[in-house]
């Protein structure tokens, strides 16, 4: 049977043994991804930086060791990893905290979007005398927040803090008691109040970035001179479509979950899922829900990443989502979080997640970064864009101050202290965690370069400097902050872990704080229940 030039035949792909060079290259690539993760975690508390550096070296920007088809494959697999990271983030988020702090999240997201755009206009248009559309494209690329980086940094910090708690407990407990006691729970920063505000603000940033990307896509038509009422109408629909699609998905998802999915799951799925088959049933259900949301988001014009987050939140609202980890009862079937960890935890941690951050390294134009003018302008722009996100943390002390004034005016006794003093660590966490731009920023700025005539190569490289350095700077700041202040943030009465009462979060009062033991935050939750 004849084969074509690619080695394929009319009915099958010819099986050819890979060359020993290809095998060694792939082995070394995955080996160095693991080594780079370990080194970056030990040195700067941001393991994802190691993945980006390895991708930079093995990809086109530096040595181009991997074949182009492998880089394309790893980019696609890495994007699946990004979807899984965001889905898991939606699965773990506290929906009661999300509802209660929605207004604060919207304010934080708006500041995080508008401030970088305004600062970009100030620097490039007023300072460097670039065209206004060029400043707009750069500001759009730098107004986004990397959702994948945000979730990975929070989960990595949670695991590290859990290990530190375990070592502390073993130092102070008797050997027999330590052997009999259960392992300390995971300090999940994504379930703190400040973590919920951070995640929801980052998601809203992504939605705003999608809208602005639609505007950038349409700039080519503006450049071509296709004006008139028809072009204006088209521009309005292009801008309005992602806003409308995202808004409808955000509104309809909780309604469908509450009035349709939960009753159906409780009636048909839960009674028939034994503890043996529940893991597989949960996996199939999560896969169906995730694929459905991805398809809806893609065809409706919303962000696929936004769809992944809503899919995780949708699944987390179903009965039994807490699972065996929360109840501790062997007779209770494992929940969706346990099923995700059982089937996808290891592949995501050791394959998909490293490939995602390595693919970010593939997209960095490393060689073009090293000219004098580009370096100093890039560093200035980096610092300005870092400030543009760090300032978002200011909403925390302002919110505390306003809440204190309202309580004082209504003669309510404030819980957790007044103010702004104890809230500086949560405020810094919120601002620092939003600094990283990552994949979203690189995607937007490359659209501006390749699909419009308005962005010059020099401005593109300066923007890449800011994206890359902010993606490195953000996780490093968060890692250092959580290493030093992680426990204090998690135990903060207003911004840390909150107890659930009838679906709403409550602040930790002083009596509950007295019941906290070295066992971790789960014992606190039981004391408050």
* Overall 3D shape: globular
User: What helical percentage do the residues reach?
Assistant: over 70%
Q: Report the structural category.
A: mainly alpha
Radius of gyration: 24 Å
Please, what is the average pLDDT?
Answer: 78
Number of alpha- plus pi-helical segments? 21
GO molecular function, one term: antiporter activity
Protein name: Sodium/hydrogen exchanger family-domain-containing protein
Membrane topology: Multi-pass membrane protein
Pfam family, one: Na_H_Exchanger
Please describe what this structure looks like.
The chain has 529 residues and is an all-alpha fold. It contains 21 helices and 2 strands. The protein has a two-stranded antiparallel ribbon. Helix 2 packs across helix 14. The chain starts with 19 loop residues before the first helix and ends with a helix. The C terminus is likely disordered. One of its GO terms (cellular component) is membrane. InterPro entries: Cation/H_exchanger_TM (IPR006153), Na+/solute_symporter_sf (IPR038770). One of its GO terms (molecular function) is antiporter activity. Its main location: membrane.
């Amino acid at each position: 049977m004849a084969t074509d030039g690619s080695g394929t035949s009319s009915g099958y792909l010819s099986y050819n043994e890979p060359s020993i060079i290809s095998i060694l290259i792939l082995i070394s690539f995955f080996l160095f991804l693991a080594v780079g993760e370990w080194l970056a975690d030990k040195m700067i508390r941001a393991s994802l930086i190691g993945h980006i550096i390895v991708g930079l070296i093995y990809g086109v920007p530096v040595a181009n060791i991997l074949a182009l088809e492998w880089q394309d494959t790893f980019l696609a697999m890495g994007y699946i990893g990004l979807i899984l990271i965001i889905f898991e983030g939606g699965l773990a988020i506290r929906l009661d905290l999300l509802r209660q702090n929605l207004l604060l999240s919207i304010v934080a997201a708006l500041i995080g979007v508008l401030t970088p755009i305004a600062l970009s206009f100030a620097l490039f248009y007023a300072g460097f005398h670039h065209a206004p559309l060029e400043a707009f494209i750069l500001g759009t690329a730098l107004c986004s927040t990397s959702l994948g980086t945000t979730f990975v940094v929070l989960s990595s910090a949670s695991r590290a803090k859990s290990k530190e708690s375990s070592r502390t407990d073993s130092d102070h407990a008797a050997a027999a008691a330590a052997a009999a006691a259960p392992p300390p729970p995971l300090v999940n920063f994504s379930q703190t109040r400040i973590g919920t505000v951070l995640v929801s603000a980052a998601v809203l940033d992504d939605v705003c970035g999608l809208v602005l990307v639609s505007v950038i896509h349409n700039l080519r038509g503006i450049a071509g001179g296709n004006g008139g009422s028809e072009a204006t109408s088209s521009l309005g629909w292009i801008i309005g479509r992602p806003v409308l699609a995202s808004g409808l998905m955000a509104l309809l998802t909780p309604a469908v979950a509450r009035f349709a999915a939960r009753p159906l799951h409780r009636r048909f799925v839960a009674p028939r899922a034994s503890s043996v088959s529940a893991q597989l049933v949960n996996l199939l259900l999560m896969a169906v829900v995730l694929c459905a949301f991805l398809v809806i988001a893609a065809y409706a014009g919303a962000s696929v990443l936004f769809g992944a987050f809503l899919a995780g939140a949708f699944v987390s609202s179903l009965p039994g989502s807490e699972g065996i980890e929360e109840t501790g009862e062997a007779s209770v079937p494992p929940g969706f979080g346990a099923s995700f960890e059982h089937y996808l935890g290891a592949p995501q941690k050791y394959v998909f997640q490293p490939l995602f951050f390595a693919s970010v390294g593939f997209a960095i134009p490393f060689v073009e970064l090293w000219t004098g003018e580009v370096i100093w302008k890039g560093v200035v722009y980096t610092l300005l864009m870092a400030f543009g996100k760090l300032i978002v943390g200011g909403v925390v002390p302002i919110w505390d101050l306003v809440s204190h004034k309202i309580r004082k005016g209504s003669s309510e006794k404030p819980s957790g202290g007044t103010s702004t003093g104890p809230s500086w660590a949560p405020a810094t966490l919120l601002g620092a965690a939003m600094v990283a731009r990552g994949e979203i920023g690189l995607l937007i700025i490359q659209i501006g370069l390749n699909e419009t005539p308005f962005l010059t190569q020099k401005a593109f490289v300066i923007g890449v400097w800011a994206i890359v350095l902010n993606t490195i700077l953000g996780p490093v700041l968060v890692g250092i902050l959580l290493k030093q202040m992680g426990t204090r943030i998690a135990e903060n009465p207003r911004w840390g872990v909150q107890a659930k009462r009838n679906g709403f979060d409550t602040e930790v009062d002083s009596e509950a704080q007295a019941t906290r033991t070295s066992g971790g935050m789960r014992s606190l939750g039981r004391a408050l229940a």
